[in-house]
TrEMBL record:
InterPro entries the record matches: DUF6316 (IPR045630)
Domain (DUF6316) ranges: 5-58
This protein's name: DUF6316 family protein
One Pfam assignment: DUF6316
Superkingdom of the source species: Bacteria
């Protein structure tokens, strides 16, 4: 379990689990908002997909960003 605090969090750190999961032989990542993305051929490709997703989210204007 990840117990590190994120920017803007107060109080005890909430439970966190891995953003990555495997169904059959296909890998997926999930966002805090509950969006699942995939399938990817490997966990490494799912990790790359998550990095790309987060990069795009950071490019959005503040009012359109996923929180």
């Amino acid at each position: 379990m990840d117990t590190q605090r994120r920017s803007g969090e107060d109080g005890p750190a909430p439970f966190r689990s891995s953003r990555f999961f495997c169904v059959g032989s296909k890998w997926y990542f999930t966002t805090r908002e509950g969006f699942d993305s995939g399938p990817f051929a490997s966990r490494q490709r799912a990790e790359t997909g998550l990095r790309r997703f987060l990069h795009v989210v950071r490019l959005l204007p503040e009012e359109q960003q996923v929180h």
